[in-house]
Amino acid sequence: MEARSYWLDLFSPSTWDEFVASGMTVSGFRENRWRVVQQIKPGDYLLCYLTQVSRFIAILEVTSEPYFEHDRSIWKNDDFPCRLKVSVAVALTVDTAVPITELSDRLSIFQHMSGPNTWTGHVRGSPARWKPEDGGAVAEALRGAQANPVARPVPKDKLRRLPKTVSTPQLGEVTIPDDEETESGRNIVREENETPVVQESVREATAHTEIQWLLLKLGSDMGLDVWVARNDRGRDYNGHRFADVSHLRSDLPQQFDEVTNRTIELIDVLWLRKTAIVAAFEIESTTSIYSGLLRMSDLLSMQPNLNIPLYLVAPDERRSKVLTEVNRPTFSRLSPPLKEVCRYISFSTLREQLPKDQRVIRYLTPAFLEEFSESCEIESV
């Protein structure tokens, strides 16, 4: 008998309440997660995690094959059309739910972290397959909490916490982001001499070039045509000249107007199949992440029907900053919103996931990026 898999299933407090009120028989996910949802099998467990309060609250057993249904009878603000029928194996209350931090000594996501909040990258998008040992540890903790509940009351204002906003005449309501943190979780205080800043800039530029090279080589090894930002064509990494990459395009397909093409030409890396762009990457390693976001948003504004996977690739320690900015109301007013079409990949994840065997790479398709990229949508609404 095939072993069951464990999958993360995210709920905000409000979508959990709606799920409970509906009878707890159907769980759903966003439309862009259909390919991943199709991998879930009857008998698998969904580990239900409450955002905003960072607690595991239930185990659901999948009882059907995935199906697609647009219906707002369960959730009023989104229909979550990628669906599975489920039965409840364990269900707790918000107050007796298990805080994820209490499992830090049992979960691999808390090991070898590059920053104090790195673990949060593993609870930002669902469904996501969890390692059997991690899933088993969560399931065991939930069963224990059901048998011996411990009340940890959650402040009501935390359950209804919303991002801080201000109103501006030009943009309307705009999110106020939290202070940016460094790798150590503290704000940097620079000395008056500028040497640390120069050294940091050199490190960031080197990291940017490395990731750009890895993406160009990966796309080329997959048999795709590749494009590097026009102003970066003269770069090299460790003696490898960008201009020498196999399948590097010297020009782009001209299916767009001149203004759109000028924007596309400055995107860090593109993967193409014949005349179609199959993936676009913006690499954000510097202090400001706006240049790439604005290029992506300009592209969506000019071509709202564009169907290209967009990826923001950034250092692990900038993850929170990237997600905060992508979710700003300014970008949410696009159609579709930037947060729904962009996905995040950390530098460390990209390095770890690159196949070492050339024979494997040539059989990959761009869709494999979804397996380890992360949704940019912040689920706690």
Structure commentary:
The chain is α+β, with helices and mostly antiparallel strands and 381 residues long. It folds into 2 domains: 6-147, ph1033 like fold, CATH 3.10.590; 195-375, no CATH class. Helix content is 28%, strand content 22%. It is built from 12 helices and 18 strands. Strands 1, 2, 3, 4, 5, 6, 7 and 8 form an 8-stranded mixed β-sheet that branches. Strand 3 and strand 4 (55-62) form a beta hairpin. It is globular. The model is unreliable at 161-202 (pLDDT under 50).
Counted by DSSP, the helix tally is 12
How many domains, in number, for the residues? Answer: 2
State the major sheet.
Answer: 8 strands, mixed
* Helix/sheet category: alpha+beta
Instruction: Give Rg in angstroms.
Output: 22 Å
In short:
The protein is of the alpha+beta class and 381 residues long. Helix content is 28%, strand content 22%.
Key features?
ph1033 like fold; alpha+beta; globular; eight-stranded mixed sheet; 381 residues; six-stranded mixed sheet
SSE layout and pairing:
Blueprint (H helix, E strand, L loop, with lengths): L5 E6 L1 H9 L4 E4 L4 H4 L7 E6 L4 E8 L4 E2 L13 E10 L6 E2 L28 E3 L1 H16 L8 H4 L5 E4 L3 E4 L19 H27 L3 E4 L7 E2 L2 E2 L16 H7 L4 E5 L2 E8 L6 H13 L7 E5 L4 H8 L2 H4 L5 H4 E5 H7 L4 H4 L12 E2 L6
Parallel strand pairs: 1-3, 15-16, 16-17
Antiparallel strand pairs: 1-8, 2-6, 3-4, 4-6, 4-7, 5-6, 9-10, 11-14, 12-13, 14-15, 17-18
